[in-house]
Amino acid sequence: MAPSQLKQLKASLREHGVLGPQKSKKQKKATSKDAQKRLQRNAALEGIRQRFNPFEVKAPARRDKFEVASAKNSKPVVGRPGVTRGLGEERRRETLLKEMQSRNKVGGLLDRRFGENDPTMTPEERAAERFARQNERKLKKTSVFNLEDDSEEEIALTHGGRSLGLGDRLKDDFEEDDLSSPQSEDGDFETQDDRPRKRLRIEDGEALVEGEDDAIPERKKTKNEVMKEIIAKSKMYKAERQAAKADDDDLRAELDKGMSEFYEALRGHKPPEKQLPSPPTTEPEPHMNPARAAMLAGKPREDAEKEYEANLRQLRLEARSKPSVRTKTDEEKAAEEAARLEELERKRIRRMKGEAESSEDEDEGEADADADVVPGPDEDFGEDDAEAFGLVAPAPPPPPRKELDVEDEDEFVLEDDLIASDSEAEMASEQGLEESDSEDESDDDGDDDFINGLVLPEGSKPAAQTKTSEKSSTSKNLAYTFPCPQSHTEFLDVLKDTKLTDLPTIVQRIRALYHKGLAPGNQENLDTFAGVLTQQAVYLADTERDVPFPVLESLLRHLHSMAKGSSEAVGTAFKHHLETIADQRPLQLSTGDLIILTGVSTIFPTSDHFHTVVTPAMLTLGRYLGQSAVQSLRDLGVGAYCSSLALQYQKLSHRYVPEVVTYINNALAILSPSRLPETDQDGNPWSFPVRLPTKSLRVQPSSVKVPEKLAFKDLLMEDGGEQDTNARALALLNGFIRLSAQTAELWKQKSAFPEIVSPLIHAVGHIASQSTKLPKATVKLAASTLETLQALQKTSIESRLPLLLHNHRPLAIKTSIPAFIENYNPDRHYDPDKQRAEISKLKAEYKKERKGAMRELRKDANFMAREQLREKKEKDDAYDRKFKRLVAEIQGEEGREKKEYEKEKRKRQGRF
Amino acid sequence: MDSYDSLIAAPMTVAQRKHLLKQLQSPETISKLRRPEILMDFFTDSLDMGDLGLAVPALQGLFHLITTRNLDYPAFYARLYALLDKDLLHSKYRSRVLRHLDIFLAPQNHLPAATIASFIKRLSRLCLFAPPSAIVAIVPFIYNLLKTYPTTTFMIHRPPHPPYTKFKHNLGNDPFNPAEPNPQLTNAIDSSLWELETLRSHYHPTVASIARIISEQFTKQQYNLEDFLDHGYASLLESDLKKKDKKPPVVEYKIPKRIFSAGHVDVETENHDETNTLLELWDFGC
């Protein structure tokens, strides 16, 4: 930092010779008389004034017109050229002049400042050391009375009102003095150095004396003092308390005095006289309310109240003891169950609508849902529009997947105390059989019991079932432990020597034995086992001609219960089977495939918008119904079962399956005793092709009695002898007629229902008209179905209205938020190209710097020239003075000599 | 080149005709002929034979002749309309016919809205009984038609009162006459596309969501038809099975007591609220 203005002024005054060593009166007079010098002095003074006038301002020629509006006010309004110039000059004198003077000179100053070139010292240490040195130097001040010097340097650091370094120094001095120079005590003032020390010592002594009486705040209190203070304070508080208490007592006494009157007023008769004078009894224990006590303890009332409030709140928040979970009443249980079912139904409906299952899933599902369900038609989905709908096989966007609500399962397990420790499970598995014996008909509990079987042996239910189906009990010699089969062949090995009816028991035992809680790898084993079980179900249905359905049923239910634990594994198993169907026999479904598809319908929620298992399964059904070519009655049976399954799948969601309608129509056309006319009664053509088999399967006129229901085994599992072909065909015809009724019932809400049902009406009506060729029961059934269909169609037509699909709010024109530039300046050029902008910014900066540097250089050159001129002048002056002095000297000498000569001459002349 | 002259005049079997048509259908071959007009009758005859396999290539050739040779074929659109019969969506010619339709019904041909409406209605009626792959292609096609011919959008949005409808009551009756061969006279323009509305609840989620574009706002200019053709059960099934599961599949909460046996148990516990259509119809012998 440049020195202060005053110092600068002084320096420049001295430099110009205005200020200088004191001059005698004669000299002053001489200078004042010398006009030349006075002129010079005045000029110099003017220059200095101009240079140092801090108030010299350079205002812009024209003021800003609208200074409020103009955005850039970065520049100061007025410049102070005098100040800046002075500063520049000063700086130059410090740097440039020094350089100039030391030019062409060898040697120079050695920087002897302490620690300047010592890298081991930190700047702090350096500063501290320098400060110490400086103080030392200061103490060696040449003159005590030199006030000017003193005033400048007396910037000492202080702490707590006492200077920092000085105290120690003083002490040191003191001791030093004591030890080294006893003679100074005797008033020996030989050296100058002693003087300040002494003076300081005296000062110090005085300070010490003063410290006794008025330096209390600075001084550290002694222990004694502190104790005294505390005692005094406590006494004061005590007195205050007593005073307050006395106040209280007074108040109380006063109140007591009024008491009798109060009683009187209350009772309405005069109190006994003696009560009046009774002195106010002081309470044995003075009782104060906490707020008052706190107040007396020195806290202000607000604080005390705050604290009280806080305490109160805390108390309120404190956990109270709660009763343990109590046994719920039946009603409560029922209500809970109802609530749970309601929740499940709510979730199912959400899934049906294709929404995410819960709000948490929503975010995640949203992106998928966007892609899958509502493809924003506006956006360009890359190059493939169909891909937006997930139509392309390679990498379609997966739709929102639903989370399995495992917690339900857990809930179950917890509810029924079913988390078994290892030993329990072991025990349980052994208990299995006894239990199954005892609980024979306990299968009313339905799935609860079945899930118990997850951990407990499942003997209770499946074993009981096998029993009910065939009374011969499970083989007594059935093994209790089985290896967990990891492939279907292994499983067949396990089952080699067992009866088919024992299968559920075996499966149940395996599941109990390899329960996931029992060993770390069990879950994986069971997952694989789930796949094996599906294979087994297919295998059984495909190979065994008279497989008992309860066995298949229990297998499926086992799979279901396993799916609750690890849905992924079971889902994968089913998907794998569906893949096999798709690859090998999409149009020739086997019995096992049908069993699996039935299993899908019970295990997985078929109403979901998308389900990884159900959707492919449904597609498999649709594919069969849509594309298979009917060649035999079995094909028709499979078709009937598939249609039935498809309807079962859509039972809740009522989704439309076009293939079912076409298939039923085709089947009716195939089975009808006579050819179905190509156009319906109104002459309208069919909307779908009818494919008749190569070999006619038409029902022949006969009077066979057929059961009301279609027999799965008869129709699907046997290839059928010739003898009952007609009966089977008739049964199928009945079945399809019923199916058409079911179909109509399922989709009666559809807006296109009249169109959907019209081919069915046509076909069923045709069959109803064949009274001569068909048994009465069938014709009756067809007629009643026809009636229903027509009634449904009629109501549907009556109730439907033209479509109103586009009640959308008009779309707003797309807008985008304009990109505003903060503090926009129309003068500035905003380059959108960032790189170019940066470059131009750099260029401008360079230009500015260059200009500045040039200006500085120019000024430097000016300064140097000025200095050189000054130096030259000084040199010339010095030379001139010297010359004059010499001339004068010589002249004087000559004159003197001349005088001497003259004198001598005169003397001689006089003498002569 | 005029060897075709005698070829097309000679009597031939269907297979021969098909082969010949295959050779002759492309515009390049036709333009190479010195007198392409001689093919006119051949194409017309092929188109009239009612076989899709013949009609499709004949149609293409005919269209080329109409556009380049100024052939006057008065009932072309009626013929085209007749092509959209019950077999179309189930046949392998579906994609090709759709591609042709896309060209024939293009706005450059300045067709009356009634004709377009007939095509739309006929297609959507066929869709009602079509396999998913056909629906997937037809719906974007209809979307494009609706978008290019805004007059036809009354078929998806019609306030149910007289300025918009012909009658005050009985609005559920479909005015469309499917038996009418002339697309100009089918009254399809007064009808509504209930069929497509129903398809919004198609069992397959992809199909359903594609069908839903009809009821969304028509913000997309055109769907690229080519992307929607050539799908099938197999590709749909494959894409469904290949879908990566992020979450395990949901499992039905309740394990049913009976799957194959319509048990007495159900009757007892009286939670037989939903009818089991499977068990109503089938007897599993247990």
TrEMBL record, chain A:
Acidic residues: bias regions: 173-191, 205-215, 357-387, 405-450
Residue segments, region Disordered: 1-47, 66-221, 266-478
GO cellular component terms, semicolon-separated: Noc4p-Nop14p complex; small-subunit processome
InterPro entries from the UniProt entry: Nop14
Chief place of localization: nucleus
Localization per Swiss-Prot or TrEMBL: Nucleus, Nucleolus
Function text: Involved in nucleolar processing of pre-18S ribosomal RNA. Has a role in the nuclear export of 40S pre-ribosomal subunit to the cytoplasm.
Similarity annotation: Belongs to the NOP14 family.
Protein name per the record: Nop14-like protein
Source organism per UniProt: Capronia coronata CBS 617.96
Lineage summary: Eukaryota, Fungi, Dikarya, Ascomycota, Pezizomycotina
From TrEMBL, chain B:
Any Gene Ontology CC annotation: small-subunit processome
Domain CCAAT-binding factor: 56-211
Highest rank taxon of the organism: Eukaryota
InterPro entries, sorted: CCAAT-binding_factor (IPR005612), Noc4 (IPR027193)
Pfam families according to UniProt: CBF (PF03914)
Transmembrane residue ranges: none
A Gene Ontology biological process term: ribosome biogenesis
UniProt family annotation: Belongs to the CBF/MAK21 family.
Classification via PANTHER family: NUCLEOLAR COMPLEX PROTEIN 4 (PTHR12455), NUCLEOLAR COMPLEX PROTEIN 4 HOMOLOG (PTHR12455:SF0)
Protein name, UniProt field: CCAAT-binding factor domain-containing protein
UniProt source species: Capronia coronata CBS 617.96
